[in-house]
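The records we work with from here on pair a chain with its fold. Each token is a code from a learned vocabulary of local backbone shapes. A record is reproduced here so that you can trace the correspondence yourselves:

_____
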Amino acid sequence: MFTNQPTDTKRDRIPPNQKETTGFPVLHYGEVPEYTDLATEWSFRLFGLVEEEVTLTYEQMMALPKCEVTNDIHCVTGWSKLDNKWEGIPVEEVLKLVKVKPEAKYVMLHAEHGWTVNMPLADFAKAGNLFATKHNGEDLTPEHGWPLRFVLPHLYFWKSAKWVRGVEFMEKDRQGFWEKNGYHMYGDPWKEQRFAWD
């Protein structure tokens, strides 16, 4: 089991100007997606700077090897939730499905309703990141990203895209949805990189 925690003491695990919560606040922009048949309405695409694009059905995605990880998450709005247990598909299993071209240095996650989020490829590929299907032993709720949510705990939680549907591999960085609306391009909670001017 992978654990992403800076130190053993709880206080040292909470970044500056964050407060611990035991709840799991729901924050998102737009409508929560609804599905009646994932077999026909859902797919996952790996594209951009890859040797050959890959599209997976929901069944194929769920057949990939799973893992469990425990980590802390930090929301840009000021809350931190410690010791989250996730179950899902490790990012390294997804990366095995494509040959990424050497010039790819960034990724853009694509989610429902045209929502996007950017990050360096090195951050995306970091051990412990996963495409989550469960949180604390329960299936994700639609409000928290069911059927699939990317989990990237070392950056602010807006980088952990809900309802993720694909990964685009890119040579140069581009702004995702929140980055176009004033949020920081990287989003390190320990440096308080909340907004573009931070």
In short: The domain at 42-181 is CATH 3.90.420.10 (Sulfite Oxidase; Chain A, domain 2).
